[in-house]
From TrEMBL:
PANTHER family: ABC TRANSPORTER GLUTAMINE-BINDING PROTEIN GLNH, AMINO ACID ABC TRANSPORTER PERMEASE. It comes from the Bacteria. It comes from Microbacterium phycohabitans. Residues 66-288 form the Solute-binding protein family 3/N-terminal domain. Gene3D superfamilies: Periplasmic binding protein-like II. This is Glutamate ABC transporter substrate-binding protein. Residues 1-30 form the signal peptide. Belongs to the bacterial solute-binding protein 3 family.
Length: 299
């Protein structure tokens, strides 16, 4: 990537953020960063001289002339699909686009599949997707069936409650409370294993949990703070974050097991691409108040 390209991209990002600030001010629940017109594809070039000898996943992409990427679609700031325009955006989606570009595939060669937390490993194992970028924590258990590149973001588990809730300020305040999370997620497992909520309920998506919270049928939603912050940014009058994080979630790119060539390629892209990472973070996550630094991708 040439520096001049990045600088051009950076000023586009800055302009986009200004526009976002202007149109969001005084409008609680206004749309988050996605779809703000910022064209971050300016931040990178589509590679033309790619050689990834020994990567079966890359071979499959080349023969299909497309990249099939697993993502989320209901996580503002991370992986989001605008219900009106159908446009996808967010930090994870753009990380997926950056990876595709580094492999020689333009954004219009990407086919997205929305895959819930519980099905990620299986979709990778079955070869239905080439890689997955969607708030996917690196864990030893998952590494039994798939590989990860990364980490590319570090966050932690938190709690979301109704904006007027006064009695939950951390995971130790959950006695007698009903907590909602997503099937197959690390936060659901941890709240059950390490804390003592009154009860837990699980759904396929966090937005289903939000509906339960809105209706008053659960007292809290638990998942990563980076995800929760996106929901609060979208509806600050309805929800708030209760207390600090209580785990470390290291986000990785899910890959078919054994494709070390692709894994090394992505790790190098991340470790050499600090400017791109920062621009994507500032555009997608900083607006909801998330703070973070780029971790070293050492998986
Ligand atoms: N990062 C956690 C996980 O991978 C929670 C978020 C999610 O469900 O995607 O399980």
């Amino acid at each position: 990537m040439r520096k001049t390209r990045f600088l051009a991209g950076a000023s586009i990002v800055a302009a986009g953020l200004l526009a976002l600030t202007a149109c969001n001010s005084g409008t609680p629940g206004a749309a988050p960063a996605e779809g703000d017109g910022t064209d971050t594809t300016q931040l990178w070039e589509v590679a033309s001289d790619v050689s990834l000898d020994g990567s079966p996943t890359y071979e499959r992409m080349v023969s299909a002339d497309k990249v099939v990427v697993g993502v989320k679609e209901d996580q503002p700031g991370l992986g989001f699909k605008d219900p009106v325009s159908n446009e996808r955006g967010g930090f994870d989606v753009e990380i997926a686009q950056w990876i595709a570009a580094s492999l020689g595939f333009d954004a219009d060669k990407i086919e997205y599949k929305t895959i819930p937390s519980a099905n990620r490993e299986q979709e990778l194992v079955n070869g239905n997707i080439d890689y997955y970028v969607g708030t996917y924590s690196i864990t030893d258990k998952r590494k039994e069936s798939i590989d990860f590149a990364g980490p590319y973001l570090i966050t932690g588990q938190g709690l979301l409650v109704a904006a007027d809730n006064e009695d939950i300020s951390g995971p130790d305040d959950l006695a007698g409370k009903i907590v909602c999370s997503v099937t197959g997620s690390t936060p659901l497992q941890r709240i059950r294993d390490e804390y003592s909520p009154g009860d837990t309920v699980e759904y396929d998506t966090y937005t289903q949990c939000l509906e339960q919270l809105r209706a008053g049928s659960v007292d809290a939603v638990t998942t990563d703070q980076a995800i929760l912050a996106g929901y609060v940014a979208q509806e600050p009058e309805a929800f708030k974050i209760a207390g600090d994080t209580f785990s470390e979630e290291r986000y990785g790119v899910g890959l078919p097991k054994g494709d070390t060539v692709l894994k090394d390629h992505i790790n190098t892209l991340f470790n050499d691409g600090g400017d791109v990472w920062t621009a994507l973070f500032d555009k997608n996550l900083a607006p909801s108040g998330i703070k973070g630094e780029q971790p070293t991708a050492d998986e």
